[in-house]
Amino acid sequence: MEKKLFEAYKDYFRVGAAVSGLFYDEEGFARRSKAMFEFFSKHRPEGMPEFKYHEPPKGPFIDSEILAKHFNIVVAENDTKMCNMMPAPGKYDFSSADKFIQMAKKNNQDIRWHTLVWHNQSPEWIFKDENGSKVSKEVLEQRLKDYIFTIGKRYSKDVCSVDVVNECISDKTFKLREGSERSMWFDILGPDYIDKAFLWAKEAFPNAELVINDYNLETIPGKRQGMYDLVKGLKERGIPVDTVGLQMHISQFYPTVELIDETIKMFGSLGVKVIVTEMDVSVYNDYKDGVEQFEEKKEYTPELLKMQAERYKALFDCFKENAKAGILKDVVLWGITDRFTWKNNFPVRGRTDAPLLFDTEGKEKPAFDALVE
Prior knowledge:
Layout: H1 5-8, E1 14-19, H2 26-42, H3 62-70, E2 73-76, H4 82-85, H5 95-106, E3 110-118, H6 137-155, E4 161-166, H7 184-189, H8 192-204, E5 209-214, H9 221-236, E6 243-246, E7 249-251, H10 257-268, E8 273-282, E9 287-288, E10 291-292, H11 302-324, E11 328-333, H12 366-372
Parallel strand pairs: 1-2, 1-11, 2-3, 3-4, 4-5, 5-6, 6-8, 7-8, 8-11
Antiparallel strand pairs: 9-10
């Protein structure tokens, strides 16, 4: 009998994947890939070296076949972000989002929306007035409200889960990310922007779970505590946050399963659900004794892939236990095949990675076998 990934976990949680560039045609993927490169080059973090553009690999998009077969919930990696949805004042571009929704419906898949409010990939114009100066708080509030309701009006009947606010916790202070860390939302609107975004999202998406999503919550205890304190305050104020999203960009070397389990239970204690939103498991160990030390490109040996398989199996067993406890709902992988993972050339230029369940040719890896046994 042919094995399907989502069917192996149907009694516990949905299993999903992010769709990158939308695999409708090679030309469209190449165009989107270059546009995203240009955006990130322009907004690369301070101290990070300049990027070099690499043409995407040629060939058939086997990813679309794998997506339809093995996953029952999907999310768009980039096509539903604000910079793509609203490229200019008063101008919306629904074309890619509509294709994404149509694809998911054809596959009978549930749909997540990523993301309404994020300090990255917001159009620059939204923070400026007609003179190019910083826009007023009142104007930006209205723009954000209009955006959330416009997206909700068009897509609320199609989506089951919405990342309302993405990556709002600072990596430095473990409090809300401020203007010094490129959050113009905080810089102009102050901390209330989170409350208001969730209140508007509740009206615009009345039947969807409302998610606050961030990375390294399962890795850095201080950041985890910062998010815990934020969500606790939101709940106490009656703000309709339903779910905490753990991105789960991790390695097969760290963090421990015990720390991940502790993180899930910690947020569950607040009365919210937990979902894994962007999971991949790098084969590199770039942290040694708590210090960032990037490994050189390595060979993906059978031994290394077996180790990755054991890691995936232990993590999914942890997820199953937390699903049975009524806490965890979904597990979404950030990509489909290693061919198109965002981890290729990041964080080390010229270094590929193999963090997903299918290799560069779309073949099932030992990690996939471990999960469907």
